[in-house]
Specification:
This protein has 153 residues and is of the alpha+beta class. Helix content is 30%, strand content 29%. The protein has five helices and seven strands, in the order βααβββαβαβαβ.
Length: 153
């Protein structure tokens, strides 16, 4: 049975290939193998057998702030609801952890707006800038759109 579940260490090479395929086209940020291993517990995957066809992470930035990042679905598995399942898994985990605000930086804002994410200025995510953005090759000229989801806790 195919379902969303927490990533395992053995999934990391497949996750990296999937993420970096889209990164090579400028559609998301590349992730190094070491970064993925360090953050494996943040990730959810969707497998077809042993093949990882999608992944996404919920990364906690602060007591009240987390990011959904590295959402990638293999092209032949898109528009099947897998991305929706991954976002819902991330939001459910954030709710269970008591995190008040979840955000994402994306080139696909309409996808996230379907879940209730609202457009925000990146400047409102100042903690994000100091935690990770300053290391990004696109900093300070980020062209992604920031969206925020406020939890009802």
């Amino acid at each position: 049975m195919n379902k969303v579940e927490k990533a395992r260490v053995k999934d990391v090479p497949q996750m990296q290939r999937l993420i970096n395929l889209f990164a090579a086209r400028g559609e998301m940020l590349a992730r190094s193998m070491s970064e993925l291993y360090e953050n494996t517990r943040d990730y959810y995957v969707y497998r077809q057998g042993e093949l990882v066809v999608a992944c996404a992470a919920l990364h906690i930035d602060w007591e009240d702030l987390a990011e959904i990042k590295s959402l990638a679905v293999a092209e032949d598995s898109q528009k099947t609801g897998i991305g929706t399942q991954l976002v819902k898994a991330c939001l459910n985990e954030a709710r269970e952890l008591g995190i008040a605000t979840v955000y994402c930086l994306t080139y696909q804002p309409a996808f996230f707006e379907r879940f209730g994410f609202k457009l925000r200025e990146k400047s409102e995510l100042s903690r994000k800038v100091w935690l990770e953005c300053y290391r990004c090759p696109k900093f300070p000229d980020c062209d992604e759109v920031a969206l925020v989801y406020e939890m009802e806790l």
